[in-house]
Amino acid sequence: MKVVHEIWEGIPLLNVAAEDRFAEALPTVVFFHGHMSAKEHNLHYAYQLANEGMRVILPDAHLHGDRDEGLDEIQMSLRFWEIVLTSIEELAIIHTAIYEKNLAVGEIGIGGTSMGGITTLGALTVYPWIKAASVMMGAANYVQLAKAQMAQFESKGFKLPITDDERKQMLDTLARFDGTKNRAVFQQRPLFFWHGEQDTTVPFEPTFNFYNALKEDYAEVPERIRFMREKESGHAVSRPGMLAAMAWLAEHVAE
User: Fold this and answer.
1) I want to staple 234 with a disulfide (CB 3.0 to 4.6 A). Which of 79, 88, 177, 198 is the partner?
2) Buried/exposed code over 141-167 (b: 16+ C-beta within 10 A; e: otherwise)
3) What is the pLDDT of residues 98-133, one digit of tens each?
4) Under DSSP, is residue 87 helix (H, G, I), strand (E, B) or coil?
5) Could you write out the DSSP letters of every residue in 163-217?
6) Residue 88, C-beta contacts closer than 8 angstroms, at least 6 positions apart
C-alpha cells in the first residue's frame, strides 16, 4: 500500500492505493474521519479498500489534523456544523480534482465514521454523482440533532454565541442537508449503515428509524440497502462492522 500526503486546493489529504497500481485510474472512495480525529486515523479502512484494487482519498476536515487551529473540545463542538458543511462543500472540490488528475474509474463512493458518517449522509442529499456509501455511527436528522446539541449546551449553562435569527438561519440551512426531509434524493443508491445500539454520542434509534423509512423507497431493490446493528457496541466501530462497510464499498463502487 502506498500512502501519499497531498494538498488539493488547500485541503490536506492522503491518497492511498496499492503501490503497483498507484499511477492507474482506479475505483475511488473518499472517506471522512470523525470529530476530533484526523485523516491518518482511518488508514485501516483505506488498507482494506486498497487490497481490493481501489483508491482511497482521506481528507482532513476543517479545523482538524493538519488544519488544527488549537481549539479546545468545547470550541470545536460549537463549530461542529460549520465543520460538517465545509466537508460537504469540499467534497465537490475533491471530486473535481480526482477527475482532473485521472485518478478514478467511474463515479466515486464515499464513507465515514461518526461526524464523517453524518457528513456522508448530508453529501448524499446534494451530490447525485455519488455512486455508493457506507455510514458508520452517522445520522441523517441534521435539524433534530442540532437542536439536541444546542439544548445540551444550554442545559450545562453555556450561552450559545448566536442570536435567535442566527439560530433559525442555521437550522434552515441544515434542513437542506437533512436526509429525513429529503429522502427522494437517495435514488436507491447502494447504502450501508453500521451502528452500535449502546451509542450515546450519535444515538442509535434516529438512524435506525431513518433506515426503516428509507427501506420503503428501496422496496424494488432491497439488496441495495443494509443496516448492520450490534447490540453491545457503543460509539466505536467493531472490526466486523469495519470489514462489512468496506466490503460494501468494494462491491458497489467497483461494479
Assistant:
1) 198
2) bbbbbbeeebeeeeeeeeeeeeeeeee
3) 999 999 999 999 999 999 999 999 999 999 999 999
4) helix
5) -HHHHHHHHHHHHTT-GGG-GGGGTT--EEEEEETT-TTTTHHHHHHHHHHHHHH
6) 119, 122, 123, 126, 177
**What number of CA atoms fall less than 13 Å from residue 93's CA on the CB side?**
13
Provide the domain count of the chain: 1
**Cα angle vertex 145, ends 239, 219, to 5°?**
65
Q: Residues 194, 108, 26, CA angle at the centre, nearest 5°?
A: 115
Q: Looking at residue 238, what DSSP letter applies?
A: -
Concatenating the DSSP letter of every residue in 34-79 gives -TT--GGGGHHHHHHHHTTT-EEEEEPPTTSGGG-----HHHHHHT
Q: Mark the ranges of the chain whose per-residue pLDDT is less than 70.
A: none
Domain CATH code at residue 138: 3.40.50.1820
Asked if 83 contacts 71 with a C-beta cutoff of 8 angstroms, the reply is no
What is the reported pLDDT for 41? 97
**Rounded distance between C-alpha atoms, residue 184 and residue 98, angstroms:** 27
**Torsion on CA atoms 193, 194, 200, 206, rounded to nearest 10:** 30
**Distance separating alpha carbons of residues 64 and 61, to the nearest angstrom:** 5
- CA 47 → CA 91, 96, 218, distances in Å? 21, 24, 30
* Domain extent for 115: 2-254
* Residue 217 vs residues 37, 100, 181, 205, 221: alpha-carbon distances, Å: 34, 34, 14, 19, 9
Which pLDDT score, from 0 to 100, does residue 8 have? 98
Report yes or no: 40 and 58 within 8 Å, Cβ to Cβ: yes
**Cα separation of 32 and 91, whole Å?**
10
Separation of alpha carbons 177 and 145, rounded Å: 12
